Amino acid sequence: MLITRRSLTFGALGGALASTFSLPALARAPKLGVQAPGYYRLTVGSSEVTILADGFIPLGTKLFTGDPSAQSVLGADTVKTSVNGWLINTGDRLILIDSGGSGLTDSLGKLSSNLLAAGYALDQVDIVVLTHLHGDHCSGLTAGGQAVFPNAVVRVAEAELAFWSSAENLAKAPEGMKGQFKLIETKLKPYRGAGRIQTFRTGEVVSGVTAEPAPGHTPGHTMFRIASGGAQLLIWGDIAHNAALQIPEPSRSIAYDVDPAMAVETRKKVLDQAATDKLAITGAHLPFPGVGRIVRIGGAYGYVAEPWSQSI
Ligand SMILES: [Zn+2]
């Protein structure tokens, strides 16, 4: 603000008036203490994409391989890591990609309430498509043994379902991973019982949503490309769990990778493609709403968050 002799004069006059007429004290608004609903809407051509926050999961920095001194840039032993899902309205179908991790920690489980806050209803979801079957992506499918999305068919990659359904894989899995097999069985049960689980390999899963295999993190880990009217959004699932660590240094893997070497190879391939094609990307664990671009900075990659916008 430019302060002039004139504005100073009026300021002084205002002060004099206030003391003459004794204006009432300013009201103090009570603190509200709640976060805003976590959803973020944008259009991709004629499709509407609503990104839904499920909350966050604390991830230990020691879960990541690589130079531990670089991990200290995060400033803590654990980092709050977003868990996001996507609701796609193609006009014909309402598709939810990933269901969040309700029940895993108290800081998760908000995806359903955010879906409602975004103006939709749980029984409007026609299809739930899963990037993979880790608990932070499939746990929101059921609550108390009941299907949270009562009218939905669940679609998952054939290789993913086969891996986690195998008694042989369960038997040879490390002790810490066995619970994951049981969790998946529990979460899929109401849908399986109703004959509402379908598998896919690659290509169009539903009109306007194309599956692209991205194995390594899990055997059937899948990305989805939304394409409409020349606009594109790549939903990359778990290509990176921490943007600050794994995008500049894609060779860092996380302890949850089923095949770490393949996960690294896939991450490098996807980063190269995203940077070359200047693709808009969105990830389950990029800080909510988790939409951005991959750029090349010198010889490395960087993540640039997309500014607030209503379209790609
Ligand atoms: Zn995940």
Provide structural commentary.
The protein is of the alpha+beta class and 312 residues long. The protein has one domain (39-305): Metallo-beta-lactamase, Chain A, CATH 3.60.15. The chain has helices at 5-21, 68-71, 111-117, 135-138, 158-165, 167-172, 175-193, 243-246, 260-277, and strands spanning 39-44, 47-60, 78-89, 94-97, 127-129, 142-143, 146-147, 153-157, 197-200, 203-206, 209-213, 222-228, 231-235, 281-282, 291-297, 300-305. The strands form 3 sheets. Strands 1-2-3-4-5-8-9 form a 7-stranded mixed beta sheet. Strands 10-11-12-13-14-15-16 form a 7-stranded mixed beta sheet. Strand 14 and strand 15 (291-297) form a beta hairpin. The two termini are 36 Å apart. Mean pLDDT is 92; it is low at 1-19. The structure holds zinc ion. Zinc ion binds at residues 134, 136-137, 238, 284-285.
The fraction of residues assigned to DSSP E strands is 25-35%
What share of residues is helical?
Answer: 25-40%
Taking pLDDT < 50 over at least 5 consecutive residues as the criterion, the unreliable ranges are 1-19
Shape: globular
For this structure, what is the CATH class? Alpha Beta
Order of helices and strands: HEEHEEHEHEEEHHHEEEEEHHEEE
**CATH fold-level topology:** Metallo-beta-lactamase, Chain A
Which distinct ligands sit in these coordinates?
A: zinc ion
Q: Structural class, from secondary structure content? A: alpha+beta
**Mean pLDDT score:** 92
The neighbouring-strand order within the major sheet is 1-2-3-4-5-8-9
Number of beta strands:
16
Total number of helices: 9
The assigned CATH architecture is 4-Layer Sandwich
Q: At the fourth CATH level, what is the homologous superfamily?
A: Ribonuclease Z/Hydroxyacylglutathione hydrolase-like
Oligomer: single chain
Question: In angstroms, what is the radius of gyration?
Answer: 23 Å
Taking the sheet with the most strands, its summary is: 7 strands, mixed
Q: For the record, give the distance between the C-alpha atoms at the N and C termini, rounded to a whole number.
A: 36 Å
Whole-number count of domains: 1
Signal peptide: 1-27
Family: Belongs to the metallo-beta-lactamase superfamily.
Domain Metallo-beta-lactamase: 82-285
Protein name: MBL fold metallo-hydrolase
